[in-house]
Amino acid sequence: MENLWLMSLVALIIGGVIGFMLGRNSQPDNRQAALEEELEEAKQALENYREDVSQHFSKTANLFNNLTSSYKDVYQHLAGGAQQLCQSDEIVRSLEASLQPQLKHAEEQSDTTPEPPRDYAPKSPGDEGTLSENYGVSDKPKVRQDQHEEKIAS
């Protein structure tokens, strides 16, 4: 009778270990399936984002083209109105000049070559500037503020 109980207990333990091992081996499949599903969702979200970005820039380009076209139409309307309504050629030329971009003026200003920044620290001709490695380094010991006040007081 004791052997029967012992054999039942051993069979129960062995069955539990086998069940645990089978359950443990089947969990990675569930985990793997969940990770694959998550990966597919991330891929789909990335594809949607790319499509949204593409649509955004396409619409921006169309709007910019419309803006350019509208500006051109306004310019032509103003230039035509100036020619029809203004009798003085001088006024027409000044209006056209004011509507044209000031490229000539910008070109005249861009003739000067930009220079790199300079060391503008106030200095004597023989002193080193603030960009020097030795700037502010001296051989004289510095006097502390309280020692300086004592010298003034005495």
Layout of helices and strands:
Elements: H1 2-85, H2 89-99, H3 103-109, H4 145-153
Could you list some keywords that capture this structure?
154 residues, mainly alpha, 4 helices, 0% strand
Average pLDDT for all residues: 77
Poorly predicted regions:
none
Number of strands: 0
Question: What is the global morphology?
Answer: flat
Characterize the largest beta sheet: strand count, sense, and whether it forms a barrel. none
- Secondary structure category: mainly alpha
C-alpha termini separation? 112 Å
What fraction of residues sit in β-strands? Answer: under 5%
Figure out the total of helices.
4
Structure commentary:
- This protein is mostly helical.
- The protein is built from 4 helices and no strands.
- Helix 1 runs antiparallel to helix 2.
Concise account of the structure shown:
It is built from 4 helices and no strands.
